[in-house]
Amino acid sequence: MPHAKTLPALWLISDARNDAGLDRALARLPRGSGLIYRHYHLAGPERLARFRALRRIARARGHVVVLADSALTAREWRADGIYGAPRSLWPRRAGLLHLATAHDMAELGLAARLGADAALLSPVFPTRSHPGGKTLGAVRFRLLARQAGLPVIALGGMTRGRARVLRWSRWAAIDGLS
Fold first, then answer.
1. Short-list 43, 41, 10, 47, CA closest to 26
2. How far apart are CA 147 and CA 66, in angstroms?
3. Could you tell me the sign of the dihedral formed by the alpha carbons of 41, 75, 27, 177, in that order?
């Protein structure tokens, strides 16, 4: 399981809208990046089959593969970790990376207290996932992230250019990387 020093800096998040380009996107990511596999739109057997295909590509590139599901399913599917709301990651499961979702200081604090390895803090910028939704912006994001007590991964409208503007090395994207 990666710890803070080896936690991937770049994360590709799967979604129904980026599925067609995921194979190519995974192959283009720098070695040792991460994939967060969600694919909530697929039924059980289809979801597993697509996960296996993407995991094969990801592992060939040395990527970490995290599943948005239970620890039990993550172990059965041979994922490297789990992703979800802080309480869904509890209790901690040895050998799995725990990535929590967070939108404010309270959720960051909960993620840290429950032992998450990192939190994805969002939305930093406007995003297609939540059109017209309230965003953190660069200043508020950095303020929250620096006080978080655990590694923070920027999410929400992220692209390589926005990561540079944000001056933040750890970030994730759905559209921005696919």
1. 10
2. 25
3. positive
Q: What gap in Å lies between CA 69 and CA 89, rounded to an integer? A: 9
- As a CATH number, domain 10-173 is 3.20.20.70
Tell me the per-residue pLDDT of 50-106, one tens digit each, with 9 for 90 and over.
999 999 999 999 999 999 999 999 999 999 999 999 999 988 888 999 999 999 999
Domain ranges in the chain are: 10-173
The model's pTM is 0.94
Q: Where are the beta strands (DSSP E) in the chain?
A: 10-13, 34-37, 64-67, 81-84, 97-102, 118-121, 152-154, 171-173
pLDDT (tens digit, 9 = 90+) per residue, 140-155?
A: 999 999 999 999 999 9
Structural tokens at position 161: 């250019």
- Distance (Å, rounded) from C-alpha 36 to C-alpha 63? 10
Distance CA 109, CA 115 (A): 10
